[in-house]
Amino acid sequence: MNDAIERKLRLAPKRWYLKLTVALVFAAIIAWSSTAVDASGTDSRGLLIARGILLGLVRPNKELLLNMTKQGVAYLLLETVCIAYLGTLVGAIIAIPLAFLSSAKIVPKPVVVLGRAVTMAVRTIPAFVYGLMFIRVTGPGAFAGLLTMSMCSVGMVSKMYIEFIDDLDKKIFESLDACGCTAFQKIRYGIIPQLIPDFISTIIYRFDMNLRDATVLGLVGAGGIGAPLIFAMGAYRWSEVGAILIGLIVLILIIEFFSSRIRRKLARGL
Asked: pTM for this structure?
């Protein structure tokens, strides 16, 4: 048997030249892309700023970090979490009908084309642009961040929902048809039980993303902790920057711990 395997390996086509060509093309693309990197702005001033940020992490402003008022890190982080949570929830709810209208297993093809076009259009616009748009409409504040997170969540979550719906097991529907179930019963007992674990896992994953995006959106005045962070960096108050970054790191670690446990339980069916 070993001789047969060796014979097949010898007769197998030699594609080393193809692999070498791909590697050379890949290396050439990397070399060409590196020409766009300009490091001339890295001077002694930039090194001093990097040093200030590191010192701020080591010696944070404890008064700001432990302040329980609306100007403290705890309240600003709570506002950021609320923006991300409500934005994820609203976006996930809006994405459900949009996903069903974009699935070829549920609706006719013309409706599918229209639904997927809307989904692609929503997903095309970056979160930063949505933030600038909604700030013009509602003014700066947490509500603009909520609307921005909702729109960003609709695009990504609906795309994931569509894939889950398209992967539904048809045999379950055939069994329910054989039992004489109505359309509502098929949705209740055939579709929802299959989709709930995947939907919840997607919502949790999107919440993790929105939590980070909500911090960035604060830079344009959409609420949360981003605005105080950029103001502190602009004024070179590195101890305040360190306090805010430490709060963000702790928050992300806590959210990641609990979200990972929930996703594992969903994957195991617990």
From this structure: 0.72
